[in-house]
Amino acid sequence: MRKIDRHITPAVVIAGMALVGAAGWFVPQASPPLDSGTGEVDARTTVVCATDPDDDREFELVAAGNAGGKLRLAELGQPDDLEVLTEPGAAALKVETNPYGVVATGPMTTSSASALLALTGSGADRGLSAQPCRGSGDDHWFVGVGAGGTQFSTVLVTNPDAQPAEVSIRFHGPEGPLNAVGASGIEVPPLATRAIPLEGMLTDGSVDDLDGPMTIEVRTTAGRVEAVVHDRHQDGTETTGADWTTATVAPALSQVIPGVPAGAGERSLVVTNPGERSAVVRVEALGVDGAFVLDGADEIDVPAGATVRVPLEGPLQGDAAGLRITSDQPVVAGLNAFSEAKDRATDVTTPVAVPPIVGSAILPIVSTADVKGTVQLSNTGDQPATAEVVLRDRNGKEIERSNVELGAGATGVIEVDDPALWAEVITEADQLHVAVVLTSTRNQTAGLAWLPAISPPAGQALPPAVVDPRVAR
Questions:
Q1: Predicted local distance difference test score (pLDDT) of residue 204
Q2: Who wins on pLDDT, 303 or 365?
Q3: How many CA atoms are closer than 13 Å to the CA of 358, on its beta-carbon side?
Q4: Which residues, in sequence order, are bridge partners of residue 143?
């Protein structure tokens, strides 16, 4: 394990609000740029971030790039840019409750990332929240969601195109698929975000206990969308944390979740088997000294179509780690993680499975005033791996460059509490999964958030979206 301890200096960003960030999923887009009148024809990637219209917090839109070309930040569907980056550096803007887009052109398509962030000390959204800006797609899986009881989830579906889109939602509960009201043919207006509360969608008798683990699949039946889940947790009338939950990777036989937070607090793995055959799942921790099977998680039975919750706070013993989930049937997975600190209110975040980085990836923020970042790198390869983590300020100036050496199946940790605004992770390894865990003690809350590092592919057009009538059945 490698640690770097630095003195905190409030030199960057935020007045009355903390700023955090992460690498966005840069999925190539065929949609027009935010300012469709420019006539640009360069390779481009377009990613979007969204908020709940009922969310009255202040937000920060963050973007960072390490190349030439152009990085444009704008409100979705509006012609005016909020800010433009044309050289290495970062931008951070206070924004209102709207969907936002970031368009990268030229070299920025493979060397940039963006995120949306919020920090508040009161109300139903108390705590630290962060989401990566991502590109649109046709299939999104969200694990560990809730439809009432102690957890209230709202799906935020954003349509970045000029034509209407349509989605359907499928539920997987503890006993299998669940019946839902109004879950098919949900229209999403052009260049807008639609908030879809899960509360009330499940029909009577679908679940005996709404606090049971659930996973949803958001499928596009027309057009393309980006989606994120706004989660609010509570115990009675007391808020226990809020966050945005990003989509996990598609069902697979092997999943890797980097960035399991260190420290006390509940850690519950949620695994869903969407197939028609029972699955046997095995969970390994990727610790500082290598991989080991967690007690009680060497053979987990997950029935066909069902979702299970596996408590892991005991086996993990409060250590920072990654998780490797393997199964004999394709599954999806995520981790509900709660903070716990004396004399401070709790918060929650949901790390999910992500692909390995390829060559390099950017985290647009790793620390700032009131927020400390912990970059965690998990090597799932069978050989040792090395990586460089380069910390930079808002102007792109290098602050520090650290070499991290990782054994097979091991996790390395870099703690950052200086004014570094963003970071680039560089590696030749092909099985390195990276995330940043963000913490804050502001407003008497043990704030907790998580953001992944994903390598963006070069911008290119996607084939036209095709309507699949099966997903609406």
A1: 61
A2: 303
A3: 8
A4: 215
Rounded distance between C-alpha atoms, residue 321 and residue 313, angstroms: 12
CB count within 10 Å of CB 368 equals 32
* Helix and strand numbers, DSSP H then E, in the chain: 1, 34
pTM score, two decimals? 0.87
In what helix (H) or strand (E) does residue 80 lie, and over which residues does it extend? none
**Which position has the token pair 């937000």?**
59
Sheet holding 385-392, edge to edge: 360-363, 422-427, 385-392, 398-406
Tokens of residue 137, six digits: 């797609």
Within 10 angstroms of residue 94's Cβ, the number of other Cβ atoms is 15
What phi and psi, each to the nearest 5 degrees, are found at residue 107?
-60, -25
Residues 6+ apart with CB under 8 A from 89: 64, 65, 394, 395, 396
SS3 state of residue 332: strand
| Confidence (pLDDT) at 391 | 95
> Tokens at residue 204, please?
């009577």
- Give burial (CB, 10 Å; 0-12/13-18/19+) of 122: exposed
Radius of gyration of the chain (CA): 20
Q: Given the DSSP bridges, would you call strands 252-260 and 238-245 parallel, antiparallel or unpaired?
A: unpaired
Closest by CA to 225, choosing from 163, 168, 170, 157, is: 157
Helix (H/G/I), strand (E/B), else coil: 258: strand
Q: What is the mean pLDDT of the chain?
A: 87
Number of alpha carbons in the 13 Å side-chain half-sphere of residue 127: 30
Rounded Cα distance, 389 and 423, in Å: 7
Q: In the 8-state DSSP scheme, what is residue 316?
A: H
pLDDT at 208: 55
Q: How far is CA 164 from CA 189, 283, 407, in A?
A: 5, 41, 49
Q: Which of 89, 91, 66, 68 is nearest to 81 (CA)?
A: 91
Q: What percent of the chain has pLDDT over 70?
A: 86
More confident residue, 394 or 53: 394
Q: Please state the φ and ψ torsions of residue 367, each to the nearest 5 degrees.
A: -170, 160
pLDDT tens column, 61-75: 999 999 989 999 999
Q: What is d(CA 68, CA 397) in angstroms, rounded to the nearest whole number?
A: 15
HSE value, Cβ hemisphere, 13 Å, CA-based, for 73: 25
Which residues are paired to 48 by β-bridges? 101, 134
Among candidate residues 354, 455, 357, the one with its CA nearest the CA of residue 406: 357
Q: Residue 19's closest CA among 122, 100, 94?
A: 94
CB 155 within 8 A of CB 227: yes
